[in-house]
């Protein structure tokens, strides 16, 4: 039952954002840029009884993934602006996202290993 409720509420939020974006792409984009998935996930984790320490770790994980997400969105937006086919734009964006996360992990692990 819990899964069904989470899925329904989450789908409704996504549906409302999609409806808003259809009527106003600018404002739909602004609302979509809100950390809706992160906030919904945080809410559902708290409802399930997760400890605040795990909630904090989750949010730091979200912050760790934020630069890659920005790169993905930037690549897809630029590619679409230059009339690149939709699915190729998405593939390029996901590729940029993955590359940045790999580089980020490599750079940060090297940085932190110097201070140990």
TrEMBL record:
The chain crosses the membrane at residues 31-47, 59-80, 86-108. Keywords: Membrane, Transmembrane, Transmembrane helix. NCBIfam families: PRK09272.1-3. This is DUF3147 family protein. The lineage of its organism: Bacteria, Bacillati, Bacillota, Bacilli, Bacillales.
């Amino acid at each position: 039952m819990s899964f069904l409720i989470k899925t329904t509420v989450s789908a409704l939020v996504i549906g409302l954002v999609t409806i808003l974006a259809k009527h106003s792409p600018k404002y739909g984009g602004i609302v979509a840029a809100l950390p809706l998935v992160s906030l919904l996930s945080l809410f559902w984790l708290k409802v399930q009884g997760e400890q605040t320490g795990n909630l904090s770790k989750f949010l730091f994980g979200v912050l760790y993934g934020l630069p890659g997400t920005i790169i993905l969105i930037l690549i897809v937006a630029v590619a679409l602006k230059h009339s690149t086919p939709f699915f190729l734009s998405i593939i390029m964006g996901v590729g940029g996202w993955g590359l940045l996360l790999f580089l980020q992990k490599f750079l940060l692990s090297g940085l932190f290993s110097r201070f140990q």
